[in-house]
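Bug #77: duplicate submission created two jobs. Keeping one. Sequence:
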Amino acid sequence: MRILLTAVSGALLALGCASSADAAVRVGTLRCIGAPRVGAIVASVQQARCVFTGVSGRHERYVAQFGRIGADIGVTNRSELVWNVYAPTPLRRRALVGNYVGASADAAIGVGGGANLLVGGNNATISLQPVSVKAETGLAVGAGLGQLQLR
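Kept job's structure:
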């Protein structure tokens, strides 16, 4: 499992996903609990409920839809994704609402994991970076372009 997570994280970093949030500071953590999903070979969609916890302790709830375009085969049960959130300035309320894109990869045989490095939100100034270590159970493998919509 650790080898898988290390390999996935290294692959995502190797993709060189840089953003205008490069000089940003950590403003909090976004934790999402995803519903079961079925991969459809070239794409998948998963609904989730998320909570942003700012470094000040403030909490905000979001509804999310996570999608992937690329290889995505299998079935997973509930999953949990966690990202550190970086922004160039402190965030106003509901600032995470928006669309995010980036690299995404995961695998599960019984128990599995993955990572997603996403950029977007407020004029593409917010970066969601792994900690997004994804924990899931099922039988699945996937990699490709990840998209997250927060509402």
